[in-house]
Amino acid sequence: MYTLALETSCDETSAAVIQDGRHICSNIISTQVPIHRKFGGVVPEIASRQHIEYVMPIIKEALDEAGVDMHDIDHIGVTYGPGLVGALLVGVAAAKALSFALDKPLVGVNHMEGHIFANFLSHPELEPPFLALVVSGGHTQLVKIKGYNSFELLGRTRDDAAGEAFDKIARVMGYPYPGGPQIDALAKKGNPDAITFPKALHEKHNFEFSFSGLKSAVLNYLHTQEQRHAGYSPEDVAASFQKTVVETLVEKTMDAARWSGMTNIAVAGGVAANSGLAAAMEAACAKRQYTLYRPEPILCTDNGAMIGCRAYYMAIDGRFADLTLNARPALSITTC
Question: Which of 1, 6, 62, 113 has fewest C-beta within 10 Å?
Fold first, then answer.
């Protein structure tokens, strides 16, 4: 069974062909990072215009690399939320057009569920149930995966997501977009205990996240040092900031694992590629004899392959969409 999948939720235009849910035949990703870098972040209108230009050539490239044509495709999966509304609309429109023209079933995919399912592509042995920590630029969530189509949302961010905080701190410190890799690289050279930054919502069994206070604390520290003409070490700031974020993520994940009885832990989303988070999560899981799963770096970013994997398991469960499918920029994972 072949799935053609489209991902256009933010600033990556991606198309992939997946065979039987877990085999990647192709996964083409066109990034807009160089375009948006000069603006310090993603400009939604520019992103949607670039998707319009790229989406059809990317689909053709994905089909050609997979060695199949549209008539070999069994169904079409597409991200319809969450994300930037203009960007989402481009992918949804393209998928609906192909579905109508070729009479192929359409599957609307939740972008965050796609990030979780990237773990199935990197780890063929992984099966539900497991606990997933989803950490990206716009979302931070703890989700109990009870089955391929059965989830329980345990907690989410109340304000800034972890990835968003990384980007904002990097921008204030003068580093280019995307900021996450910049902070990660700096942190390796700094002292994580140099500065104490606050943690929010750290009560036991509180699975909600909040990083706005941490972001403000870092900004206040930087402004105070500048006003005093005291200077600061970017490496120490990055290391101390990253340590606070990572400890928050790991502590809440371990607490949720104990509370839910899960011993298999999966990390997903762009921040899953952060080396500090990977090391700390590996150590915490090893200490408790939990099994940790993490996608390979290319599958941590936004990509069509993860959408194709999720679409496959929805399709075999008969969860198809009709041509009224529309973009839902604020779509959330629901307990089911």
Answer: 1
